[in-house]
Amino acid sequence: MGARTLFDKVWTAHEVVPETADTPAVLYVDLHLIHEVTSPQAFSVLKSLDLRVRRPDRTLATMDHSTPTVSDQVFGKIPIKVDAAAKQVRQLESNAAEFGVELFDMRDARRGIVHVISPELGCTQPGMTIVCGDSHTSTHGAFGALAFGIGTTEVGHVFATQCLLQRKPKTFAVNVEGELRPGVTAKDLILHIIGRIGVSGGTGHVLEYRGSTIRALSMDERMTICNMSIEAGARAGMVAPDETTFEYLKGKPRAPQGAEWNAAVARWRALCSDPDARFDASVDIDASTLEPMITYGTNPGMVMPLGGAIPEITGNAVYDKALGYMGFHGGEVMLGKPVDVVFIGSCTNGRLADLTAAAGILKGRKVAAGVKLLIVPGSQQVKRAAEELGLAQIFKDAGADWRESGCSMCLGMNGDTVGAGQYSVSTSNRNFEGRQGVGARTLLVSPLTAAATAVRGRIADPREFS
Ligand code: SF4
């Protein structure tokens, strides 16, 4: 067998039937993550066909997208305000019980955003195939898993067969070398990569993030990188597992234990691209020159260094429409622009490392008058850790709103929304029109830039605080 990429190794190990010119491959799925929004229709199909979930032991359910983040609603003191959300929560409870699927429900201490809880429980492991009815399933690729989002119809297919029909993607090496400068984070790096290759640059490919910069990142940072692979149009993003990965997973409740752990690590060590493996595409990134980044338009590829000016582009209808929506024009400087809302959270930047970074700036400072700062942990486990470490108190003392876990303001479907025309500086992953609420204007940044902006009340450079 010739030299193979990490992706090739994981793909081949899960190929039940290889693809042909006329038919896609049949791919085995190791872990199927589900949530309340994209599962109801798939469960209905199972019921109509009198089918069961084939592998409930490889299926895990949580509630995150439409769930409220206000404690009284989460814990049932008062009803969930958004009717559609209340219905989806009840529906998932009943479907999980009927089909024997493990569910982390609203009161469960392990509940949280699907892409945060699976890694922190040790369910996400190197070499797995992982799917979920959510685009940002690419997050799990940080562990050397092949993980991607699927549609509602495919959720039904995986329920019934534990397999998926898939065309084999191409491979794309993203080689990143150099040390990130102070104040420049994994979020800035992935925003730069998306800006460089474009929102369609990864279409049809699986990105493998490689190089000394990636090796130096923590698992939380690697998850931030892989999370946004989909924003470059890629099917998935992957990082080869290494000691950082094993250290993160060791002792996690659902990770292999004892002798099984040693055997698993021995297997996982082989999960890397062979030295002479060939990729279908590649890009080289010098991380040492990067600045903190910020988006100015309505897709994550419309991104620029924080201290720069919005590019001036003529004859581009997408650019014109985006800037019209955002209320910006070419040549404007972003630093110093007033904002209305700052959101720190989501499956991109709602982990403990993100909250710790934000707390470093917010400690002993106040949120600027007239600015709403919402901080939403990615999981209840992150919430408890942040409270035990005193981060939550720092946030509250600063005047932030500290909530229960969930997708919250990443998308406007759970009651946490940004008003029409308001500017929101957000650590989430999508700045599409209306993503955070009808007419909301989203600027994607790192947790450091978000915290600095909340303190100033204007778009601010976190390096001013160092
Ligand atoms: S936080 Fe946003 S991107 Fe992540 S799972 Fe929730 S809705 Fe999807």
Q: Would you write up a description of this structure?
A:
There is one protein chain. This protein has 466 residues and is of the alpha/beta class. The protein folds into three domains: 6-166, Aconitase, domain 3; 170-241 and 263-288, Aconitase, Domain 2 (3-Layer(aba) Sandwich); 293-465, 2-Layer Sandwich (Aconitase, domain 3), CATH 3.30.499.10. It is built from 17 helices and 19 strands. It has helices at 6-14, 40-48, 71-74, 83-99, 114-121, 152-161, 186-197, 212-215, 219-227, 243-249, 258-268, 317-326, 346-349, 352-362, 380-388, 391-398, 447-456, and strands spanning 15-17, 25-28, 31-34, 59-62, 102-104, 129-132, 146-149, 163-166, 170-177, 205-210, 236-238, 281-286, 293-295, 303-305, 341-344, 372-375, 401-402, 423-426, 441-444. The chain is globular, with a radius of gyration of 21 Å. The N and C termini lie far apart (52 Å). The chain binds iron/sulfur cluster (SF4). The site of iron/sulfur cluster has 14 residues, from helix 5 and helix 13.
Structure at a glance:
Helix content is 33%, strand content 17%.
Point out poorly predicted stretches.
Answer: none
Structural class: alpha/beta
Number of helices: 17
Bound molecules: iron/sulfur cluster
- Label the overall shape: globular
Q: What is the residue-averaged pLDDT?
A: 97
The largest sheet is: 5 strands, parallel
Radius of gyration of CA atoms, rounded to a whole number = 21 Å
Assign the CATH class of the largest domain: Alpha Beta
Q: What is the beta-strand fraction?
A: 15-25%
CATH topology name of the largest domain, in short, is Aconitase, domain 3
N-end to C-end Cα span: 52 Å
Proportion in helices = 25-40%
CATH-defined architecture of the largest domain: 2-Layer Sandwich
CATH superfamily of the largest domain: Aconitase, domain 3
Number of domains: 3
Strand order of the largest sheet: 5-4-3-6-7
Please give the number of β-strands: 19
